[in-house]
Design goal:
single chain; 288 residues; alpha/beta; Rossmann fold; 2 domains; 6-stranded parallel β-sheet; 3-stranded parallel β-sheet; 10 helices; globular
């Protein structure tokens, strides 16, 4: 068996074409979707991620703005900046790039962003709505994962999904979204005994542990679909996922590559959320 590759890059390009058409329609109504990213400090990885978000925004016609502050910025100052954009009608999405300096509370910052502009899908109100299957802003990586699985024609309903990793950003919400699609979901993490016994039961395996080449062929059930969320840099400088790609190619039915898999879809789902927010504002606009 040779696995089919689910190209996040190709799917992202198709979705961005669709979003560009939607943005064109909004602009004809006098609305330009706007995304503001707030960065505190000079984390090189954060700067790299922001470049990708800027490129995607510009590609589909979203107005992009970066607010870049010194890492000496106080929590109160940051909360005040967020409040300014909460009240700015030209801004439809606010994203505070994580991680933040240690003296700033991530919780306070996430909760300060208006749920109507929380395009990361991290605000507790949006998380709660996701939990109960209501329409809301979905966290970008988990939403991208579901899109990729569906794009490959993989059945989710009734299948056993095993999620390795329980972060609030990827692992937990990915499991919830797939549960909402009628999968049976098992979460595994660093304290799960007999991990291989669990992962070998997976029809769909989501690897989100952040450890290079952690999932080997021994972890996989023959014919499983494997979604590799990990992006790890080896000593050689080469990027790799959490899954040993060659092992999965020989055993899985489907596999996402790293790079070119989940990453492009994450950024695209962020753009999707910004456009969704702009559409809502268009509906709520008072008629002239």
């Amino acid at each position: 068996m040779t696995a089919s590759i689910i190209s996040g890059k190709e799917l992202a390009q198709e979705k961005r074409r669709q979003l560009a058409e939607e943005v064109k329609g909004l602009k004809e109504q006098g609305i330009t979707p706007g995304l503001t990213i707030i960065l505190v400090g000079d984390n090189p990885a954060s700067l790299s991620y922001i470049k990708g978000k800027q490129k995607a925004s510009e590609e589909i016609g979203v107005a992009f703005k970066l607010e870049h502050f010194s890492e000496k910025m106080t929590e109160e100052e940051l909360l005040n900046v967020i409040e300014t954009y909460n009240e700015d009608d030209s801004c439809h999405g606010i994203l505070v790039q994580l991680p933040l300096p240690e003296h700033i509370s991530e919780k306070a910052v996430i909760e300060k962003i208006s749920p109507e502009k929380d395009v990361d899908g991290f605000h507790p109100l949006n998380v709660g709505q996701m939990m109960v299957g209501q329409d809301t802003f979905l966290p970008c990586t988990p939403a991208g994962i579901v899109e990729m699985i569906k794009s490959a024609g993989i059945e989710i309903s009734g299948k056993h999904v095993v999620v390795v990793g329980r972060s609030n950003i990827v692992g937990k919400p990915a499991g919830i979204l797939l549960l909402n699609e009628h999968a049976t979901v098992t979460y595994c993490h660093s304290r799960t005994p007999n991990l291989k016994e669990m992962t070998r039961q997976a029809d769909i395996l989501i690897a989100a542990v952040g450890k290079a080449n952690f999932i080997t062929g021994d972890h996989l059930k023959e014919g499983a679909a494997v979604i590799d969320v990990g992006v790890n840099r080896l000593d050689t400088g080469k990027l790799c996922g959490d899954v040993v790609f060659e092992d999965a190619m020989n055993k899985a039915s489907h596999i996402t590559p790293v790079p070119g898999g989940v990453g492009p879809m994450t950024i695209t789902m962020l753009a999707h959320n910004v456009v969704k927010s702009a559409k809502k504002s268009a509906v709520n606009q008072p008629s002239k």
